[in-house]
């Protein structure tokens, strides 16, 4: 069952100003109450509210990430500190789970296949009888479902990018970063396949539309030739067949325009997702490089200090 973030919790604020809360005091329920206190102009109140925000799952995590990304000063620093604390805790849990489940990789592959089959089975009764429309609908459903499944890992990556700099880049956070990007690769591959399937369906409609339009033009030419020879039966037949093809082409054009918009949306969403993952991976590599250079510099400084102590000590 989904949590209702707007229901009062034991740690929620009570509206009542500086006086003791009235017996019937209105509780600022759940996440709405936290948001209300985050709008305060007093930093201490906002920081106190921040500590409660992470009690509300991904919705609360998004708020803390936004503050860490967009604000400055003590509230921003507190948000980033909270994110790093949460990420370190998640890192330990995920890495332990990863080690424990590494021997079950074959079972994981089977479960992914079953999951994809369930998505398609669920969609089978809700799509058009047209093959290309069915293919497009299945691709879109797979894309949306897998993207939703990826959201927790994507949110953690966003938190890492927002809150971690070289000074806080611990081995635990680096391993978490690597693991999140690794876990995203397989679903990302499935997303690309879904977009490829959607493009294939679009090309199929384009081909059918071109065929119908070409045949309509051919029947138009036959009607003109039959008219020149005054063959009335051939003229009537050609006109009827031409109209049938024109009507089919018009219907296909509507489908083509609609499916083109769907493919463009899928492509745009895929590119945005790939860009976000690339940004996270790029920052990770930059931090690793900075950490490496810092260690090298420490070794150089230590070597120089040793040389100085040997050759230049009184």
Mean pLDDT: 81
Number of strands: 0
Q: Given the helix and strand composition, which structural class is it?
A: mainly alpha
Helix content: over 70%
Pick out the low-confidence regions: 14-27, 106-113, 124-129
Q: Please, how many helices?
A: 8
Molecular shape: elongated
- First and last CA, distance: 75 Å
User: Biggest β-sheet: count, sense, barrel?
Assistant: none
Strand and helix order: HHHHHHHH
Task: Give the DSSP E fraction (strand runs of 2 or more residues).
Answer: under 5%
Account of the protein in words:
The chain is 80% helix and 0% strand. The chain contains 8 helices and no strands. Helix 1 runs antiparallel to helix 2 (43-53) and helix 2 (43-53) runs parallel beside helix 4 (74-101). The longest helix is centred in the C-terminal third of the chain and has 80 residues, at 232-311. The chain is elongated. Residues 14-27, 106-113 and 124-129 have low confidence and may be disordered.
List keywords for this structure.
314 residues, mainly alpha, elongated
Brief synopsis:
The chain is built from eight helices and no strands.
Helices, strands, pairings?
Blueprint: H1 30-38, H2 43-53, H3 57-70, H4 74-101, H5 105-123, H6 131-163, H7 171-228, H8 232-311
Helix pairs in contact: 1-2, 2-4, 3-4, 3-6, 4-6, 4-7, 5-6, 6-7, 6-8, 7-8
